[in-house]
Amino acid sequence: LNSKWQKYDSSREEYVRGLCQKLKESNGLASAGPTLTQTSASGNVPLFQQEIARLNGLLQDKMMDCDRLSRERDDCKRRDQERIQMLEQQ
Fold first, then answer.
1. 3-state DSSP: the chain helix, strand, coil percent, rounded to 5?
2. Per the structure, how many domains does the chain have?
3. What is the DSSP letter of 31?
4. pLDDT of the residue at 49
5. CA dihedral 24, 27, 31, 34 (to 10 degrees)
6. What is the dihedral sign for C-alpha 55, 57, 60, 65?
7. pLDDT tens across 24-64, in order?
8. Which of 9, 55, 76, 90 has the maximal Cβ count within 10 Å?
9. Which long-range contacts (CB under 8 A, 24 or more apart) does 49-57 make?
10. 45: which residues sit within 8 A by CB, 6+ positions away?
11. Which domain holds residue 47?
């Protein structure tokens, strides 16, 4: 789980860097090379907020999937234990 989280975190950072580069290019500021804070201050805050909301939604979906799969695993484990006990009694 930790390695999956690290992989997600690094891919998210790469994605955000790509977005920053696109914003720089679209504003014609690529040669000036503004920092992320300067780019945000130049009126792109709504775009960043929208992207953060999208990423948070994806993360929440993944967490719900993880919870569901965990419950399914626990149910399977319980059923398997019941089968083992039944077979041992026979």
1. 90, 0, 10
2. 1
3. T
4. 85
5. -50
6. negative
7. 777 665 455 555 555 545 567 788 888 888 889 989 999 99
8. 55
9. 51/16, 51/19, 55/12
10. none
11. 2-89
